[in-house]
Amino acid sequence: xxxxxxxxxxxxxxxxxxxxxxxxxxxxxxxxxxxxxxxxxxxxxxxxxxxxxxxxxxxxxxxxxxxxxxxxxxxxxxxxxxxxxxxxxxxxxxxxxxxxxxxxxxxxxxxxxxxxxxxxxxxxxxxxxxxxxxxxxxxxxxxxxxxxxxxxxxxxxxxxxxxxxxxxxxxxxxxxxxxxxxxxxxxxxxxxxxxxxxxxxxxxxxxxxxxxxxxxxxxxxxxxxxxxxxxxxxxxxxxxxxxxxxxxxxxxxxxxxxxxxxxxxxxxxxxxxxxxxxxxxxxxxxxxxxxxxxxxxxxxxxxxxxxxxxxxxxxxxxxxxxxxxxxxxxxxxxxxxxxxxxxxxxxxxxxxxxxxxxxxxxxxxxxxxxxxxxxxxxxxxxxxxxxxxxxxxxxxxxxxxxxxxxxxxxxxxxxxxxxxxxxxxxxxxxxxxxxxxxxxxxxxxxxxxxxxxxxxxxxxxxxxxxxxxxxxxxxxxxxxxxxxxxxxxxxxx
Length: 493
Description:
alpha/beta
């Protein structure tokens, strides 16, 4: 029998339906895999007893012929989603001991669809980062290594724990959140699929906020089909979230026809940035050739405001973060450091509870919102954001979707960019515009770089047209034929 941890979501679903194995057997194999990946520090909290109990309930439903869409499928959850009575930390010291009395809408949707929870995954603290090295619980390592170099690599961020767990076969799939590329960039770094849906497609209720106008939950999987299956379960209108869109949720899996003949796909000239490595350019050209071979038409387009996207994002996101994180004060939940006065307790709790990167972004956000600087920075950034969205709207008058690289490089070593926050921020140069415009984007593994590490291609779509980007991504996935496995898996049965 095939190793159960090598199965995709679709294969595991079909195997359970055909009674080739039980949900408990599938879950037990993944519980063992979670234990095996502990050296990567991908999980903050493991929940093996809960997972096995859920699996046994799934087996009973399968026996009765009452299987739901994700019945008995073991998934892992980024530790930014509140899970009822299960430790939820956002990878921050300030949320020590926090066990929510409620469940996030996205995770509730997954449990209602029959999924099994393996545990909670590591991330950059409060999702602020591109490397999963700012976590209070320590950095997560990628399961990959460069050719001839055994230094530990970052799995990307902020959903690095999710990326590492899925790539290392410790979960069939995982949830991530994407504020400026935090699903797509780590997916590219570890050679998996990462889908950032349209803003409003998945509820934000019960998901710990970073930047409320940018955050969006999405699936991280090992195939495009799996991403479609997970998104169908995760998505839907939620009256508890005022930004949740009252849109019908299509059958995304049914959209994977493999036929993109006649589609016009935009190639933005501004994404050929200065200093971009030749291998990124070459990969992009291969992607263009693949879609042409499949009958689509590449069309050069212009997104002139792209060059301002990163600067715009790093004004708006910290501004929203500084407001959202004001609620962490040591009074109601999480860490409390006593002080002689209430103000001193606030100061001591936040100083000890927030890490350096979170403090940096709170300070930037507070600065750009302060009197005298609001108009010069924050208001101007919001105007530029409108222009970025307008660029995309104009482009979609000519094309159905857009093809770009996902990242400007392969994964870097842990600590390699820690002293240069600007270099770290530049990892998001291809992904940030999508969040600012509220559009869907998907990263598909498309090849290996010269250092033997994965590289991804990104497909960007119109708002609420995830079906088209999934269809195009499926064609790229098939053409790329990406089968490389992380070195961490070598020797594992």
